[in-house]
């Protein structure tokens, strides 16, 4: 089982603080696709996300192609930015 912890806007969009999936392995980009299919939001755009596998940011692990294995914990944090003009 892989645990996906959802923080900030991701938690609000999905309506849960975590999701568990019963797979042996999956890539990060497949997890994001799954989360997009669970919502009607574009919040799961990889360019606006901080994603870590077992506390390690995915850029160190192979970015969106990073392999996630049974027992791993994936943390998904949307980066909030903006402001007024």
Notes on the structure:
There is one protein chain. The chain is an alpha+beta fold and 85 residues long. It has a single domain (2-78), classed as Beta-grasp domain (Ubiquitin-like (UB roll), Roll). It has 2 helices and 7 strands, in the order βαββαββββ. The protein has helices spanning 9-14, 28-37; strands spanning 2-6, 18-21, 25-27, 49-53, 56-57, 67-69, 73-78. It has a 5-stranded mixed beta sheet with strand order 2-1-7-4-5. It is globular, with a radius of gyration of 12 Å. The termini are far apart.
The residue ranges in which pLDDT falls below 50 over 5 or more consecutive positions are none
CATH superfamily: Beta-grasp domain
CATH topology call? Ubiquitin-like (UB roll)
What is the annotated CATH architecture?
Answer: Roll
Q: Indicate the CATH class.
A: Alpha Beta
Bin the helical content.
10-25%
Explain briefly what this protein structure is.
Helix content is 19%, strand content 33%. The protein is of the alpha+beta class. It has a single domain (2-78), classed as Ubiquitin-like (UB roll) (Roll).
Layout of SSEs?
Elements lengths: L1 E5 L2 H6 L3 E4 L3 E3 H10 L11 E5 L2 E2 L9 E3 L3 E6 L7
Parallel strand pairs: 1-7
Antiparallel strand pairs: 1-2, 3-6, 4-5, 4-7
Tags for this model:
Ubiquitin-like (UB roll); alpha+beta; 2 helices; 85 residues; two-stranded antiparallel sheet; globular
């Amino acid at each position: 089982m892989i645990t996906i912890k959802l923080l900030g806007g991701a938690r609000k969009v999905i309506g849960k603080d975590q999701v568990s999936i019963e797979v042996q392995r999956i890539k990060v980009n497949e997890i994001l696709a799954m989360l997009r299919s669970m919502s009607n939001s574009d919040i799961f755009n990889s360019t606006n996300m901080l994603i870590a596998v077992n506390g390690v940011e995915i850029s160190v692990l192979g970015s969106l192609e990073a392999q996630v294995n049974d027992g791993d914990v994936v943390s998904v944090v949307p980066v909030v930015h903006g402001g007024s003009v």
